[in-house]
Amino acid sequence: MYLPFGDYLKGLVSWIITVISSNIYQIFRPGIKWVLRKATGLCELQRTCYCEPAGAKRIVAIEHSLRGSKSEQVKKLLEFLDRAAKEKRFSDSSSPVVSNSVRAICDIKKIRLEVHQPFGKSFSECVSLIWGLNELMHTIEGLRSTAYDAEDASHEEKLLDLWALLMPGKELDSRVSNSWKELGFQGEDPKTDFRGMGILGLENLLYFSKNYSNAALHVLSHANHPSHGYSYAIVGINLTHLAYTLWKDGTAKSHIYNLCSQLSKPCRPRLIHFHRFYCYLFFEFDKLWMREKPVNIMEFSRIRDIFEKNIRSQLADPNCLFKLNFPVVHI
Ligand SMILES: *[C@@H]1O[C@H](CO)[C@@H](O)[C@H](O)[C@H]1NC(C)=O
Ligand SMILES: *[C@@H]1O[C@H](CO)[C@@H](O)[C@H](O)[C@H]1NC(C)=O
C-alpha cells in the first residue's frame, strides 16, 4: 500500500478532529492547513481520503473541504457540477463528468494522479456520490412538485393500485367513494390529500405496499385499531414530508452515504433508496405509535415530534445506517 506515513498522519488528524469542534479552528484553519500541507506533502482532500474511513465521514469531510475552498477555480467547478446534476448528467454511466472533474481538481491542487492512485479512486467515488445525491434531489423535488392530477391516467392507475394492494380481495365501488376513508384518506377523493407532497407521497405509499406488502398491511392493521388507530394515508403522506425534509436539509446524508459506500463498488444514490428510507420511517413510526398508545389522533403532533427527534439524533451519528428488516408478519 502507498502509505508510508499513515500512522503519523492518523495521529495528527485525530488531534485536528478534536480541535475542529471548536470555533477557534475556523480562525486558524488556513494556517493549520498550510502547516499540514508542508508537513505531509498532502492537501486537505488527500488527507481526508487517506485518513477518514470510507462512507459518510469521508464524503461529508470532502464536501466540506470543497465548499470551503478559497480557490475561484474550485468554486467554478462546483457550479459546473451542480449544473451537471440538474441536467442529470451523472446517471448517464458513459458520462465523463466524474473523471473530468477529478482530473480538474487534481490539476488545480497539483496532485499527480499517476502517483496518487488510491486517492484518485477514493476521490472519484466521493465526487460520484456527492453529485449523484444532488441529482437525485432534483428528481425527488420534481416528484414532490408534481401535483396529483386526476386527468393523468398514470396517476389514477397508481392510486387504484394502492387500493388493490392494501385492500386485497375488496373491490372499490367507484373511483370517488367513501371507502377511501378505510385507507385513511380524508374524504371521498384522495386527490386532494397529497397536497404539498404531490406525487411523491403517492409513490412512497405505493412502494411500501408493493415491495413490503406484509409490513404495510401490518401497519395498516394498527392504523385501523379500534382505540389507538390513526389515518394511514394521511400519516403516510406526512411521513413523506419528514423523509423529504431530512434528505433536503442534509440530515440523512449519514445514512445515504454509508448505504451507498458499503459495497466494494459504491453505488449511486437512487430513488429506491429514498423509498426504502421512507418505508423504514413508516414502520418505525407505527411501532412508536403503538408503544405510546395515544388516546386519539390529537396526539399526532406530539408523537411525530418525539419520532423526528429520535430519527434526527440517530442520523447525527456519522456511522448511522438504517436497516430494513421487517419481521415477516401474518395478519
Ligand atoms: C420492488 O421495487 C423494485 C424497484 O422499484 C421493483 O422493480 C420491484 O418489482 C419491486 N418488488 C416487488 C415485489 O414489487
Ligand atoms: C405533518 O405534520 C406536522 C405536525 O403535525 C405538520 O407540522 C406538517 O405540516 C405536516 N406535513 C404535511 C405535509 O402534512
How would a crystallographer describe the biggest sheet? Answer: none
> Which structural category fits the helices and strands?
mainly alpha
- Compressed to H and E, one letter per element, the order equals HHHHHHHHHHHHHH
Low-confidence stretches at least 5 residues in length (pLDDT < 50)? none
Overall residue-averaged pLDDT value: 89
Fraction of helical residues: 55-70%
**Overall structural domain count:** 2
Q: What is the terminal separation in angstroms? A: 54 Å
Instruction: Name the overall outline.
Output: elongated
Number of helices: 14
Question: What small ligands are held by the chains?
Answer: 2-acetamido-2-deoxy-beta-D-glucopyranose
Number of strands: 0
Beta-strand portion reads under 5%
Rounded radius of gyration (Å):
23 Å
Word description of this protein:
By secondary structure, the chain is mostly helical. The chain folds into two domains: 103 residues, no CATH class; 163 residues, no CATH class. 64% of the residues lie in helices and 0% in strands. It is built from 14 helices and no strands. Helix 4 crosses helix 12 and helix 5 runs antiparallel to helix 6. The longest helix has 28 residues. It binds 2-acetamido-2-deoxy-beta-D-glucopyranose (2 copies). The site of one 2-acetamido-2-deoxy-beta-D-glucopyranose (NAG) has 3 residues, from helix 9.
Can you tag this structure with a few keywords?
331 residues; mainly alpha; 14 helices; binds 2-acetamido-2-deoxy-beta-D-glucopyranose
